[in-house]
Amino acid sequence: MSYELATDDLDKLLGDAAGAAASLRPSTEPEAGARAEGHDPDGLIRVVVSAGGLVESVEIGPRALRLGSQEVADRAVAAINDALDRLAADAAEHPSPSAEAVAELTAKLEQTRNMSLQQLRAYTRSLQDLMNSL
């Protein structure tokens, strides 16, 4: 293996890996297991939602029980919307790369590591041969 060829191969692999890293497209979808809590404007109703918009729990405070059913329903909708907005905002603030992009980058980095090891072994053999010839 010539030095120039090995350098060109390594340079190409490193360029490919850098390109794959740059192409990681963050996802603004909430991660599995993500949760958010929301309240109505007066804090009478508390709701917890999880990724996918599933409502995990609803707590209705004692003061809300004195309200009419329509008022409680409106406040529940406000609390759910608040929780969903918080979940979306958290996902936008902390985007995660797509699984495909991470897998592609991992494969390119593994290929780069293997190529580097092969080149290091070739250089070591060349140095050993040079040392033995002296």
UniProtKB/TrEMBL annotation:
Entries under Pfam families matching the protein: YbaB_DNA_bd
Sections of the chain in a coiled coil:
none
InterPro entries listed in its UniProt record: YbaB-like_sf, YbaB/EbfC
Ranges where the record places region Disordered: 20-40
GO terms (molecular function) for this protein are: DNA binding
What protein name is recorded for this chain? Nucleoid-associated protein YbaB
